[in-house]
Structure formats: C-alpha cells, structure tokens
Amino acid sequence: MSKKNKPRPDGLVYSTNNDYYNDYPDEPAGETLPKEKQKLRVKLDTKQRAGKVVTLVEGFVGTDEDLEALGKQLKTKCGAGGSAKDGLILVQGDYREKMIGWLKDWGYGLTK
C-alpha cells in the first residue's frame, strides 16, 4: 500500500483547524533477515497471466532495496525479465529448479 493511501493512526481524514499539525513518524525501515533465516518458497504461477508461466519467489523478509537486489541477481542469472515488489520476485519463464539451486548455493533458507 502506498504512503498516500495508508490509513492514519488517529482516523482523521480532513481538518479545518488551522492549528492542527500532524507529524507522525514514518514507519521504521524493516531489517533484512540473514540469508540462512529467510524462508523462501519457489513456485510456478500462471494465474491472470494469459497462460504464461512465471516463477515466483515468496517469503522474502527485508527492505525493498535488498528485495530488488536479489530479484536483479535472479533475473540476470536466468536471462529473463520480471519484477520484485511486495515481498515477491517474479521471473518470466520456468526457472524453478535453477533458482532453487542458486538460492541454496547463495545460502538462503528454502521451504516447501
């Protein structure tokens, strides 16, 4: 959910009070778990993709920058396009077995 659409803690939508000042701190940046404590799941998906196969990596816990970096590594190794957002990495094509091998080699924890 984008910052623009996040609900406010006090439930306030609009105020006509000129003295009202809202200074809520931004959400703390989440820390990235160590590689061996990550519980990643690699699976294939075709839902809402016009029958095209994508390989999904779910369960990444950490900052968006680290997610983007891992997504870029995987897309580069596969030589395919994709995206990384909301804790998901999507890579176009069926690279499930290769990704499982690479993630194990890199020290990431995997679940079934």
Question: Count of DSSP helices?
Answer: 2
Q: Per DSSP, what share of the residues sits in E-state strands of 2 or more residues?
A: 15-25%
Sketch the major β-sheet: 4 strands, antiparallel
Count up the domains.
1
Helix and strand string, N-terminal first? EEHEEH
Q: Which structural class best describes the helix and strand composition?
A: alpha+beta
Shape designation:
elongated
Number of strands: 4
Radius of gyration: 19 Å
Q: Specify the CATH architecture.
A: 2-Layer Sandwich
- Summed over residues and divided by their number, the pLDDT gives a mean of 84
Spell out the CATH superfamily: SUI1-like domain
Stretches with pLDDT under 50, minimum 5 residues? none
> What share of the residues lie within helices?
10-25%
- Span between N and C termini? 28 Å
CATH class type: Alpha Beta
Which keywords apply here?
112 residues; alpha+beta; Translation Initiation Factor Eif1; 2 helices; elongated
Short account of what is shown:
With 112 residues, the protein is an alpha+beta fold.
Describe this structure in words.
This protein has helices spanning 64-78, 96-105; strands at 41-45, 54-58, 82-85, 88-92. With 112 residues, the chain is an alpha+beta fold. The chain has a single domain, classed as Translation Initiation Factor Eif1 (2-Layer Sandwich), CATH 3.30.780.10. The longest helix has 15 residues, at 64-78. The chain is elongated. It starts with 40 loop residues before the first strand and ends in a 7-residue tail after the last helix. The mean pLDDT is 84.
